[in-house]
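Researcher: I'm preparing a figure for a lab meeting and need a structural model of a single chain. I don't have an experimental structure, so a prediction will have to do for now. The sequence is pasted below. Please return the structure as tokens so I can convert it later.
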Amino acid sequence: MRVNDLLRQADDAFREALIRAVAGELNRRRKSSGPQPAGVFLTLVSRLGARLDHKLRIPSRVLRAVEDLWSALESPKEPDQRTGRATDAARQTEQRRTSRLIPGAGVNVPMVGQVPADHPLVTGEMVAVESSNVHSIGYDLDRAMLYVRYLDDGVSAGPLYGYHDVTPPEFLQFLDAASKGRWVWDRLRERGTIAGYKKPYFLAGVTRGHIPRHAVLANIGGQLAEVFRPRQVMLNNRWRESQAPLKVVRVLQVVSAAMRSS
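Model: Understood. Here is the structure written out token by token.
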């Protein structure tokens, strides 16, 4: 049921209560500095529906339509919560994306040439890809930044990472790569390691509130090791930390200059 149909079929009391609830929720979201989970709104609607059902005996089909109001009002393109570091950048990227969407127009992209204004290289939209490792990819042309959302357990959308200093041609190569996972290892990460990388990166977004640990080099008992270290990120104005503990993956053998020359 469309929202307009719902409002037309509802009686005056229901319509007034619904509009009041929606207006209050949208006003609260405007004042928020970060994205809010859909569950917050659905909880509000559920409580509103329970009260109305008790007082006005609203049919269950109408209440179900009210619960669907969230998707009618806002359908998030990203199934994630942006970290504090990425929230402003994402908002600015969306503004640039909208301003560039001029039908039939083209954009002159450095190192590439003329590109349609609705191409992902220009718009910054995330593109779903066929891969057993990567869920979707996107590009911020102004910041020369690549965004990669990986798969969680090889099935659902997982964490979103941003990679600095990625050229426009590299993004196009990534789009066309037959194996997205192989491209990641060849161009972004150091094969055979968990902490090695070719491009500086950061955690840009998470899904379902799961904070992945940070793969880093650390001093463990006087020895250099690759570890998964719990990380802290700002989500919805609150600091959140990885639930999994520190894990030592392997201790590295440091080769001295004298040993390399022998």
